[in-house]
Design brief:
The protein starts with 7 loop residues before the first strand and ends in a 12-residue tail after the last strand. It contains eleven helices and ten strands. Helix content is 43%, strand content 16%. It has two domains: 140 residues, Rossmann fold, CATH 3.40.50; 113 residues, Rossmann fold (3-Layer(aba) Sandwich). Helix 1 packs across helix 10, helix 2 packs across helix 3 and helix 4 crosses helix 10. Strand 9, helix 11 and strand 10 form a beta-alpha-beta unit. By secondary structure, it is an alpha/beta fold.
């Protein structure tokens, strides 16, 4: 176990980052987590890079006020647009979604054809393609990216295995299948809830969950060996706006009972000077 009793901070633009917390709780069962969902300003995907960086800095400042020992950016858009800024601005380790998943995908593929699905903003940033190419080194890797904007509302509606979901998934996945991918990166923290459908539709394709990869990265950085949980993981939940479906969806993402989140404001927060 880690000898540092401080919590791990996690933030996302909304609720999807709780799928990352679920993986963290499984791999780091003795840790305490502080989660901030910026539900008042979701989604980040249609904001400018400057705005995403501002929001990310405010979320990080909130987590640092809770004396966290690490920050996990459980949002692919923020990971693509604000990770470097955060790493240069804070004194604790910062883990994003993209690099760990890219390394896993590059190590997993056998035929060199990797698919990436995500929101329009994540795919447009080309962050996964660059990270996968970098992780592959001199090996030739072809990255086939595909935005899947309808997956998030389908998940939030609870349509995880409906005929409509399967029809939409088939449309999104068709060009990736045509390109012969053997590995698919789920580049959005909502998408793991669709893994049963995606696995069924993509036999023989390995699915890479960016949240699971990030949790493994956090565990490695903390130098903690995985141990079986001995008690319920403590998760302190905060949101910037109470949304009607948050608690129901949070329980679905986490797979465990939770308390009502506490509403907070982060609009006026700023990152302190680096120590």
């Amino acid at each position: 176990m880690s000898t540092d009793p401080r919590p791990i901070g996690v933030f996302d633009s909304g609720i999807g980052g709780l799928s990352v917390v679920k993986h963290c709780a499984r791999m780091l069962p003795h840790e305490r987590f502080v989660y901030l969902g910026d539900t008042a300003r979701v989604p980040y995907g249609n904001k400018s890079a400057e705005t995403v960086q501002t929001y990310s800095a405010q979320c990080a400042a909130f987590l640092l006020s809770h004396d966290v020992k690490m920050i996990i950016v459980a949002c692919n858009t923020a990971s693509a647009l604000a990770l470097d800024m955060l790493r240069a601005s804070v004194w604790v380790p910062v883990v994003g979604m993209i690099e760990p998943a890219a390394r896993s995908a590059a190590a997993t593929t056998s035929n060199g054809h990797i698919g990436v699905i995500g929101t329009r903003a994540t795919i447009a940033s080309d962050s996964y393609a660059r990270a996968i190419t970098h992780a592959a080194g001199e090996r030739r890797i072809d990255v086939h990216s595909r935005p899947c904007p309808l997956f998030v509302p389908l998940v939030e509606e609870g349509w995880l295995d409906s005929p409509a979901t399967r029809l939409i998934a088939e449309e999104y996945l068709r060009p990736l299948v045509a390109n012969g991918i053997d590995t698919l990166v789920l580049g959005c923290t909502h998408y793991p809830l669709l893994m049963p459908v995606l696995s069924d539709m993509l036999p023989g394709v390995t699915l890479i969950d960016c949240g699971s990869c990030a949790a493994e990265e956090a565990r490695t950085l903390l130098g903690v060996e995985q141990t079986p949980p001995t008690a319920a993981t403590q998760i302190d939940l905060y949101v910037t706006d109470h949304t009607p479906a948050f608690t129901m969806l949070a329980r679905q993402f986490l797979g465990m009972p939770i308390d009502e989140p506490v509403r907070v404001s982060v609009d006026n927060l700023q990152l302190p000077s680096v120590r």
